[in-house]
Each structure stands twice: as C-alpha cells, then as structure tokens.
Design a protein that fits this description.
353 residues, alpha/beta, Rossmann fold, 2 domains, 6-stranded parallel beta sheet, 5-stranded parallel beta sheet, 14 helices
Length: 353
Amino acid sequence: MKKQFADIQIHFSTFSLFYFSDLKFNPQNILIINFGQIGDVVLSLPALKAVRAKFPAARITAMVGKSGAEIVEISGYVDEKIAVDRVKLRDGQKINSIGEVLQIVKDVRRRKFDFVIDLHSLYETNFLGFLSGAKQRLYANRENRSLDFLANFRPAPPREDKKLHLTDHYLNVLKPLGIESAARFVEIEPREKDLEKIENLLPSGESVKLVGLFPGAGNPSRRWSLQKFAETADRLSRHKNTLAVVFLGPEEKDLRAEIEEKFPGETLIIDNLSLLEFIAALSKLSVLISNDTSAIHLGAMVGAPIVLVMDKRAPTTYLPLADKIRLVNDDAIDRIKTDAVLRAAREMLENEY
C-alpha cells in the first residue's frame, strides 16, 4: 500500500512539474524556422497554426526560404516573415555568403526572440537559433541532420520517425508544448488582388469547368509524358463547357512551343504568373491533374480537387493530406494510362467524359 501511495506521489509530482512549468512558459516573441522547399512549407502550416493557437498573444516570426515566404505570409498564422535566399547563400561567392549570414545573425539578435522553434532542423539553422540569444530553443531531432545539444527545451521532442508523414513530424516537434490532436490539414484563402488578375485571364461563367494540367516536375522520373497530357487535354476538349488549362512555371517555359504544337488549339496556356497569382488560379479549378510537385500542395491548400499522377515507388509521406485527392499510379510513371487519369478526373467532376 505504501509503495502504491509512493508511486501516486511520484506521478503527481511529475504531472505537477510539467503542468505548472507549462503555465509559467509564456513566450512573447517567437521565431519559427523552416528552410524547406515549397511543399515542406505548405505541410508545416498546421504546425504554424497550432503555435498561433497555443500562444495567441505572442508575436510570431517565421524564417523561411525565399520560395515559401509568401505562403507563410498569406496564411495569417504569423506576424512577420524573414525570407532567406538559401540558394544564393549556397552558390554565391564565399565571402559574400559569410557577409549575408552575419547580417542574418545580427538581424535575428536585434529582434530579441525569447523562444526559437526549428521545425526543419539543419546544422546551420540550429546554430542560428543558438546565436539568436533566445533563452528557450526547441529543435526537431533529425538524428545526424541536427545538432540536438544546442537545443535546451525540456522535455525534448521525439526523434524523427521517417515513416511518419512530414506534417506529423512537424506536429511531433510541438508535443513538448502540450500541443496534441492539432488539425493535420488547413486551407487558406488567396489574396483578393491576385484573384482579380486571374479572373481577367480565365473564362467567366459558372458553367465552364476548368481542368488544370501541370506537366512539370523537378525530377524527370516524376514527369508523366507530355504526350499523355496532350491526349488528356484532347479528350477533355471534346466535351462542352470543359476547358483544359495548362500552367507553366519558370522551369517549364521551354515547353510552350511543344505544347502549342501537340495540344488542342483551344487549350489555354498560362505562364508568367507569380507564386501568389498561381495559387489564386488553382483556387478557380474544378480539378487539377498534376505530377508530384509543389503544384499539388498549392492546389490542395486552396481547396482544388487533385488528380495526382505518380510512380508507385515514390514516397507518400510528403503528399497533401486533403480529402479531395485521387492518386493514379503504376509500377512506373510511363505505364499510367490516360484512361485511368480521366476516370479519376471524372470522379472529381461528377460528370461523364
């Protein structure tokens, strides 16, 4: 009986320690770091939202790579962003890169953060958090990818489990803050001025169904053939009130001449959009057919139904957690049939093609 009572006392003391320390921990100036790519930043939005809900009175600043900075800004979950051009730092002249890093450190120290959360956790961001002067530092534990000894928040987050979805990994980092059962997916609204520009580019009328096609991808192994995208556009164009819209990002500009040659003449081709304009355009689609690239994350983020074309061998721990997504895959991406993709699009559109 005495042993049971002692155990109860120990459990109560442990609970009290964490409970009361949690009550005392009330940071007012928080820095959240995530130097991931666009898709990584989108998948981290649930974590940003959870931190905002946990500390509603705090000032929250996000330090992100230049490519994802505007996404964080329009999410509304942070008060300010610091955009860092990691490519420039990596590829520029060393003396200039060192100077840029020193300026970043100086800027961060000037802001006097009292709490740093490093979601992505790289050597350089761990050092940056340490040099920030913040008294509390909570870092993702990524085995040999992070310098965990530079973090000091206790309890520490669980070690990275590579089998987990990336969003769940980000949310796991926040567990020491008592954040549990946070939403794993969030939608955001495009800016009004970007929507206004897009409305001038797209046909008007509720009866017109816009089917977006995104043929690009950073890695050739993730690209469905342009010919099959053309066949898809051709099949779509045979049906009244359905318009195929091809989006070309900066990396796909060279495809324009080939697309104009292979795709039906009525296909609308849109390029030269800013990131936020592209997001606004995706929000207007009835469905987006795309390779596994950042377009699917941006589309899901604004509620576009997605048909994702991908190789079965590709990991699924980085895919959007949206409900409106259909995965069409095969043992190799070039084996995926146009019929299968159109069938998935039909399910999304609730119409017959």
